[in-house]
Design goal:
The structure is a homodimer of 488-residue chains. Chain A has 488 residues and is α/β, with parallel strands linked by helices. Chain A has 20 helices and eight strands. Chain A has a domain of 260 residues: Alpha/Beta hydrolase fold, catalytic domain (Rossmann fold), CATH 3.40.50.1820. Chain A has an eight-stranded mixed β-sheet with strand order 1-2-4-3-5-6-7-8, sandwiched between helices. In chain A, helix 8 packs across helix 9 and helix 10 crosses helix 13. Chain A is globular and about 75 Å long. At the A-B interface, helix 7, helix 8, helix 18, helix 19 and helix 20 of A face helix 7, helix 8, helix 18, helix 19 and helix 20 of B.
């Protein structure tokens, strides 16, 4: 049985980094525990222009029960180095935090700093509730006790947090007349676009990078994600694709032999003995997903991986080739296998178990993976076991829409950029066509997940530079329009 | 001291009726108890084309605590008499229930039936949670126990109720391709417009009648409402206005004499002896408010009232004139005084005590009433005493906007009609200018509260017929646009 795709895939949303798979895979491919270690890794001293604040946030925006009036301290980080100030009506860029410690984005998502510099803007990074240091009930330990303490952990609350914090912050800064633009990536990109849709009075535009807002309900085919992974590999190398495609049944065939785990452990140079062949397959599958999701220059992880597979010594069998691929991606001396079981101490797992139900699955023969359709019943049972909650698979489309988005938003809404890289498997659930003159798609053929948000580098290819220039030009228009309508 | 304006005024939102003050005042001018008797009055057998259903609704849409999964039975009423059905993509008009038993609107708001007939549409009236028969926890008694049971009673939940119910209903009717238009009046009109803004994927347009969405925070001057009341009276009769304006100090002067309540009771022909002169003043003030709010033809209550005041026998003193006005409006033989104290068993009082904080007050010499500025501290203390909750006076503008609405929505949103009658004091907080080509204001100089929604009659003046024709024409455009974008 393949790993539980929907839990695992979505957990990658937290990866904003586009650095090489070799660097990120060991830290990020797993779930809760792995992630937290990654978060700790981010938690370094901030550069002096980034100042940390805490906002006393309403726990429950939509109810008025006595407990709803409880508050928690929400972290936000401000960079005012470039800001022209309220008298100049200089813009404010709000980074709508995603499912991670907010400090993690500071060193990675450098494009927002470039935006701030270009527009003399204030930068405000807001941490999403229940991540990082923004824990209700005083601590992560308390917040993750059970469904009663986790119960306030939802996307609508996150958006309302942003609304309330920004409104108060602008008032305190006398910056009510400063155009405010939401920026986010992945789940944070969904939040940025939803924020513009739900709170147009607070945000005059949104840059939503790699936001798969259409990967809910039946809008996007379930195999959208693995089909793109497969395409990335097949476009890179037909033989590499064939090797991977054949490897699963080969692992199954070998695994059917008695006492074979030590042999598999040896072939794949695992640091610890494998517990099962499923453990191996899950880890390999995740490696391919991550490689595709971050298949960006200059590292080009899919090409690296395929080069390693294809470059195995002549006569190497399929398992040997796949093992060579693993080694080529992760490097020697040995390979840690990650525990990919969902955890009830993981925030994103909670979110997928409640409302962020992205039905991602492999069909028969439509990908290079073994069949593993999304099974809502299984998924529900798992969530009930983990948290005692039942997922609401239709809630996101009820609350935020998604069906027939071009018709719905064609004459409603404005000023949203949906940016994508088509190598990113999540682009399958992204907005890839212009919805109107001002709700537009900006994608690159060769980019992957959240690439445009990363810190610009001299080595960036022209198509990436061009994508970012397009975004700046569009945002320039929003700001000009904002000023024109306020002046008029 | 004048009555607590903000509690009382908003309670009138529930009045959709445009029938004469003589008919409605005794039933509706008060708060909780009075209202419930009115509701009971509505609760008659429905005509056969109106069929009642109950939807199992989620209690808490935005949280995922164990109790959030509790459900309640939400009442909705369907009239399918005119519907062309899903194959014809015939429209659906959804009446977004306001702060009242939903059955009350059926016999009054006949314009929606005309809309259904004109457009071969399905009519769905959805009752607002915590009103009428749509009580969480099984009964009104249980629902109104305390802030814990009332805590789920908010406008955002009401909107999410509508979203979920409509989405499910359309799926069940295979009516996903039927354009759906929200219609509501007063608070229900606010909900209709907010529903279009927040759920454009569910509603392709909204007719928001007499919706004072700008009567929050500091957007509209606090005295907006009483200033319009005053203008209505002064425009009708300068001497009537002067009599009323002078009457308050005259009552105070008389009331300062010893043992005067029996004398006042006699002058004003109260059915029971007055408890205080404040009781008299409050009831008179409310009478003037209601008369202005429903100052429509053919009854023209302000003119009636002023005729009675001005027609008092020569030599009648000020109190006698005002008493003649009361008698002219309410009729003999005696006049009930209503207990205008806010009640913790009243739904709208809960809503004003939590989020629907409309800061309405009289300033000095700017109205025909005594000064009575809105006092948030007082208001807060009252709410804390009633329910143990603290109002959130900035929440509505944070969640729904309102400031700079023309700039904010000028290039965002579409297909909303804000209809008003300028004699309605609530029009002071309404949208009275076109925001864009498709978010438009349609008002009449001579109409009052929710007049356009009332059942059309042969005696309707031309300007009212014209207002409704304009609305039909605009809605026709929405439906055509909807079909064009879906066909394309």
């Amino acid at each position: 049985m393949a790993p539980q795709l929907s839990f695992q895939l979505v957990s990658f949303l937290l990866l904003l980094a586009g650095t090489s798979v070799a660097a990120t895979y060991p830290k990020t491919a797993g779930l809760g525990i792995v992630r937290r270690s990654m978060i700790s890794g981010y938690d370094v001293d901030l550069p002096p222009e980034f100042v940390t604040y805490y906002y006393t946030q309403t726990l429950d925006h939509f109810n008025y029960k006595p407990e709803s009036y409880t508050t928690f301290e929400q972290r936000y980080i401000v960079n005012s180095r470039y800001w022209g100030g309220p008298n100049a009506s200089s813009p404010i860029f709000v980074f709508t935090g995603h499912e991670a410690d907010i400090t993690g984005v500071l060193s990675i998502a450098g494009f927002v700093v470039e935006l701030a510099s270009h527009f003399q803007a204030l930068l405000v990074y807001i941490e999403h509730r229940y991540y990082g240091d923004s824990m209700p009930f005083g601590s992560e330990y308390e917040a993750f006790q059970n469904a009663s303490t986790l119960g306030f952990f939802s996307s609508t609350h996150a958006l309302a947090d942003y609304a309330q914090l920004i409104t108060d912050l602008k008032r305190n800064l006398s910056a009510e007349n400063c155009p405010t633009i939401a920026v986010g990536g992945s789940y944070g990109g969904m939040l940025a676009s939803w924020f513009r849709l739900k709170y147009p009075h607070i945000s005059c535009g949104a840059l939503a990078s790699s936001a798969p807002i259409l990967y809910f309900d039946d809008i996007t085919p379930q195999n959208g994600y693995p089909v793109v992974v497969t395409k990335d590999f097949r476009d890179t190398s037909e033989s590499c694709y064939n090797t991977i495609r054949q490897s699963w049944s080969e692992i199954d065939r070998v695994a059917a032999e008695p006492n074979v785990l030590s042999k598999l452990s040896q072939i794949f140079a695992t640091c610890l003995p494998l517990n099962s062949s499923e453990e191996l397959k899950s880890n390999l599958e995740v490696l391919y997903w991550v490689s595709a999701q971050y298949d960006n220059p200059p590292d080009n992880p899919v090409e690296n991986l395929c080069n390693a597979i294809n470059g195995a010594a002549e006569g190497t069998d399929i398992l040997g080739k796949v093992a060579a691929g693993l080694n080529g991606s992760i490097g020697p001396p040995c390979h840690h296998m990650f525990d990919l079981k969902p955890s009830n101490k993981d925030g994103w797992t909670w979110q997928t178990c409640t409302e962020m139900v992205m039905p991602i699955g492999n069909g028969d023969n439509d990908t290079m993976f073994q069949p593993s359709p999304f099974d809502l019943n299984n998924f529900t049972r798992t969530c009930e076991g983990l948290f005692g909650v039942t997922p609401r698979p239709h809630w996101i489309t009820t609350e935020f829409g998604g069906h027939e988005i071009k018709s719905v938003l064609g004459n409603f809404a404005s000023n949203i950029i949906f940016s994508n890289g088509l190598r990113d498997p999540y682009s399958a659930g992204g907005v890839l066509q212009n919805i109107s003159d001002t709700v537009v798609a900006a994608y690159t053929e060769k980019g992957a997940h959240c690439l445009d948000l990363l810190t610009p580098m001299a080595s960036d290819p022209d198509w990436l530079v061009s994508q970012r220039d397009t975004e700046i030009k569009i945002i320039q228009g929003w700001i000009a329009e904002y000023r024109a309508t306020r002046a008029g």
